[in-house]
Amino acid sequence: MRISTQHIFNIASNSMRSAGEAIVKTQEQISTGKRVLSPADDPVAATKILQLNNNVALIEQYNNNITIAENNLNLEESTLDSITNLLQRARELTVQAGNNATLSPSEYSAIAAEMQARVDELFNLVNTRNVNGDYVFSGYKSNSPAFSGSIETGFSYDGDEGKIDIKIDNNTKVAASDSGKTIFEAIPSDNNVFTTSANADNRARPEANISLGKIVDQEAYDRFYPEDIVITFNPDNDVAPPAKNFTVTEKSTGKIIDANRLHVSGEEVVYHGTSIRLIGEPASGAPATAATRNFGADGPIAFPVDFSITNGTFSIQVNNQIETFVLDANITNTTDLAATLNSAANGNAARLANLGLNVDTTGFSSSSGENFAITAGSTAVDGVLGLNSLSGTVSSDGVAVTDGDQFFVNSSATQGVLTTLARFTQAMRDFDGSAESVSLLNTSVAATLTNLTNAQNSVTDKVTEIGARLNTIESTRELHADNELVTRTVLRDIQSLDYAQAASEISQQSLVLEAAQATFLRVSQLTLFDRL
Questions:
Q1: Comparing C-alpha atoms, which of 315, 316, 294 is closest to residue 363?
Q2: In whole angstroms, what is the distance from residue 26 CA to residue 22 CA?
Q3: Could you tell me where the DSSP H helices lie in 415-434?
């Protein structure tokens, strides 16, 4: 068989290249300490290594989540500890204030000043932010403060009831935050109480406010409870001379409690045992623009028409209420027409009253601004009205009264801890030594002590709950540490290189390469002339 020189060179080149690649691969294994450098080296082992590396990465992510959750909960726990200490000091001040037999109004002012400082401190604590700038007690609304308000106008919770859960294991989540509403707001009150607020759509600039308010007659309020109060500012011209005035109604029934009361900024107003103050100049309502439909608006008026023999009828609708009117006289002009439509004998006067309409010689009008429709007449009726009732004619110029700013007094069985301290502060400021102020202060002391106990219990319960979460985090961290150790051990066993075996292999591979090179040198020098 004839073997070409080119073929001899190819065989030698391939042998040396294969030997060289084997040496390079072994050297790379030695330098990295890894036996499997690519899936081709060991497909089964490569798959297992990928799975184990993913497990290690997942454990690292869970450990990062654990750190975040632990930091947040530690911050929340330390904040609640500070609040517990603050509430204890507030309790001491309340007990001290209960000794009204020896304390003077100036001494109560001093206690009120310290209580004010405690309220300010508590306000800052419940609006605590973490290292990321998130508000700890705002629920899902962590970008905005949990609470807003002041001791004069009261406090409101502006967050929601959400809890931010962080996943710390495949099947384990832990709440890394809490809603301030459940901790500081939803606290059972000693007595039936109320909250005050302003309508978010109020227009006054600068804004007018409603005070925090207080109960001056618990029995009267208990009889009214759980009804709510709505305070609505009316058009100024509802009173004479025109001035800011408001009407007070029951929310559920619309029953009027007080109508067209003149507004004096900061004046105390008392309804059903509640005392509040409206501060500032609320926006007044806008008066109604009367709705009208004049006789002859749709066509010429035809007089006379005698309806005394055969009556004419037509209907008027205001909102969902419809009344049918009767024409039963000889109508020769608009004076006759107006008289017939205002007649008590045929019932038209009562019908107008039911709809809130007026009729004079010019036509129909609604002083409330409610637009109305005139329908279901006849050719004869349309002739004397000058209106097209057969196809329907409608007033379109009416504008109803626009309410002014509104304020609410809402009943509640719970009272936030900020409100509790704020109301007690106000009670001490109002103390003047009179029998009435002594009675109100004693009532306030008793209610405040009970509400503080409830608030402390709420905070303690939450601290206990946070402790349980931290225990879960700690046990999960230990579990991850054990899993990571086992995973890395298995990964090392599968992936790590046996250096003794590698050293032996690279020695053999070097010997093979050297032999291939030596053989190639000798074969490459052979020619036919050597055999002649």
A1: 294
A2: 6
A3: 417-429
29-65 pLDDT, tens digit per residue, is 555 555 554 454 446 555 665 676 688 788 889 899 9
List Cβ neighbours of 263 (8 Å cut-off, separation of 6 or more): 233, 243, 244, 245, 246, 278, 282
User: 59-187+415-480: what fold?
Assistant: f41 fragment of flagellin, N-terminal domain (1.20.1330)
d(CA 210, CA 155): 11
Which residues face 166 on adjacent strands? 174
Question: Where in the chain are the domains?
Answer: 1-33+497-532, 59-187+415-480, 209-287+402-413, 291-394
Neighbouring residues of 280: CB distance < 8 A, sequence distance ≥ 6: 204, 206, 207, 208, 209, 265
**Structural element, H or E, at residue 25:** helix 5-32
DSSP 3-state of 48: helix
The 10s digit of each residue's pLDDT in 358-393 is: 999 999 999 989 999 999 999 999 999 999 999 999
Contact yes or no for 369/401 (Cβ under 8 A): yes
Contact 324, 330 (CB under 8 A): no
What does the chain come to in residues? 532
Asked whether the whole model's pTM tops 0.85, one would answer: no
CA-CA distance, 17 to 206, in Å (whole number)? 88
